[in-house]
Amino acid sequence: MGVALLSAKRSKDPSTQVGACIVNEKNKIVGAGYNGLPIGCDDDEFPWEKQGDFLQTKYPYICHAELNAILNNIGMDLKGCKIYTALFPCNECTKAIIQSGITEVIYLSDKYEGNDVFKASKIMLEKAGVSYRKVKPAISSLLLSFDEADV
Predict the structure, then answer these.
(1) Which residues are catalytic?
(2) In angstroms, what CA-CA distances link 50 with 53, 88, 110, 126?
(3) Largest CA distance in the chain
(4) In what order do the strands lie in the sheet with 82-87?
(5) Nearest in space to 121 (alpha carbons), one of 74, 64, 75
């Protein structure tokens, strides 16, 4: 989960930073991603607003962390892998998770659980036999330092 959260910090989204990390059966990282624009689309040329005219918001342009992690994998079959994600996945990412062969979703937050999009995700995961669970972190925070004196 730490790698998913660290990946999220790469997102340019000012309101929601989400990261995801895929691991194989040996818990080796095989993919990571964060919510952001597709390759070749400049972050400064697209809107980051949450409300307004649809084409003037971030929603038609952003690729979610889970999908990015799947697309950015190291070129291997993801069957049997687990995905760690900061936020419970939306229905669109859930489709990709199921199609990729990932068998477990571990998430930190389910803050939108009452929304139909996320209810649909749970229905699909259950029907497809993909397990999901909320992570129970042993620590509440971790501070990273880039100060050479701390090394």
Answers:
(1) 66
(2) 10, 19, 19, 30
(3) 52
(4) 29-34, 19-23, 82-87, 104-109, 131-134
(5) 64
Q: Count the residues in the chain.
A: 151
Predicted local confidence at residue 149, as pLDDT:
83
Q: What is the model's pTM?
A: 0.93
Residue 3 CA to its chain's centroid (Å):
11
Residue pointed to by tokens 């996945």: 89
Tokens of 102: 């990932």
C-beta separation of 89 from 107 below 8 A: yes
> Token match 């005219």: residue?
53
Q: Once rounded to an integer, what is the mean pLDDT over residues 17-27? A: 97
The C-alpha atoms of residue 29 and residue 82 are separated, in whole angstroms, by 10
Amino acid code (one letter) for 132:
Y
Cβ 96 vs Cβ 102: under 8 Å: no
